[in-house]
Design goal:
This protein is of the alpha/beta class. It is about 40% helix and about 15% strand. The protein is built from ten helices and eleven strands. The strands form three sheets. It has a seven-stranded parallel sheet, with helices on one face. A hairpin with a 3-residue loop joins strand 1 and strand 2. Helix 1 packs across helix 2, helix 3 packs across helix 4 and helix 7 packs across helix 8. The longest helix has 15 residues. The two termini are about 30 Å apart. About 45% of the residues are buried.
């Protein structure tokens, strides 16, 4: 599936850099800083940017459009719908008419005629999955969505959704210390589905840990080691670390070229212990 060490072909026709950018943390209160950060990500070679309709109530999408439109030909903007964020809560909302409305709003805010990757942010347990995926398939048939992805799902849900339309990507929480989605990752590898780990850097690796020790020996940071491990862990992996810091953004991108020795990879690999089954997260 990957064209080389640094790239992956998403959905069979979209080459993207294997280190993406999660835009959730763009500072909505400081548009100039947000624009500069988004532009710097693209300058560094990032071609996959992940956002959502619920991030800052749509303002996140607007900031990306303000910074990058007209988008470079190789930049893929992925967005999501299916979860609302009133106050501190994240609530799945997958009624078909709502998903279609949110897609239209995302198209407007992003200044796009077609969304390259439109992801179901969460499966709404109160709505039949077939109805939720059917709404996305309708958008696809109308030419408003190119590829469809899922977030926080099980293998069984991926298979069920795939009976309605091809699934190009899965975005589940996954990092060195959180391997509950191992079975999902294995399924993605078998079927050529891009795996987009969110929270790719476990917060605890920044403190005293084997990750810190490996980073010190390699002259890198714990975050870089964590990302380098993910990139080596699977060829379908496209981490999407987010940050509001230009310095951290540049650090993250440099992880693509970090050569993780076999012994260190194996040692880090033993840190995580996958649970028997993935349990979707609320956030």
């Amino acid at each position: 599936m990957p064209a080389d060490h640094h790239h992956l072909v998403l959905g069979g026709d979209l080459p993207v850099h294997r280190l993406g950018f999660g835009a959730m943390r763009l500072p909505s209160g400081d548009p100039a800083a947000a624009h500069a950060l988004a532009r710097r990500a693209v300058d560094l070679g990032i071609t996959f940017i992940d956002t959502a309709d619920a991030y800052a109530l749509g303002r996140n999408e607007e900031l990306l459009a303000e910074a990058l439109h007209p988008y470079p030909d190789d930049v893929v903007i992925a967005t999501k719908a299916g979860q609302c964020h009133p106050g501190d809560e994240w609530i799945p909302l997958g009624r078909p008419e709502y998903l279609r409305q949110q897609a239209e709003l995302s198209l407007r805010r992003l200044r796009l005629e077609r969304i390259d990757l439109f992801q179901l942010h969460r499966i709404d347990p109160t709505v039949a999955l077939a109805d939720q995926i059917g709404a996305l398939r309708q958008l696809q048939d109308e030419g408003k969505v190119r590829h469809i992805g899922l977030s926080e799902v099980t293998v069984e849900q991926i298979v069920e959704a795939g009976r309605i339309t091809p699934i190009a990507s899965v975005q589940n929480r996954y990092n060195l210390l959180d391997r509950r989605s191992e079975r999902v990752l294995a399924h993605c590898e078998r079927h050529g589905i891009a795996f987009l780990p969110w929270l790719p850097i476990a917060p605890s690796v920044r403190s005293d840990s084997p990750v810190t020790e490996v980073a010190g020996r390699l002259g890198s940071t714990p975050a870089q080691v964590s990302l380098a491990w993910l990139l080596r862990r699977s060829e379908v992996m496209v981490p999407i670390p987010g940050t509001s810091s230009r310095h951290h953004l540049e650090e993250n991108v440099a992880s693509v070229d970090l050569d993780l020795p076999d012994d260190d990879f194996d040692r880090l690999d033993r840190l995580g212990r996958p649970a028997p089954e993935h349990e979707p997260s609320r956030t």
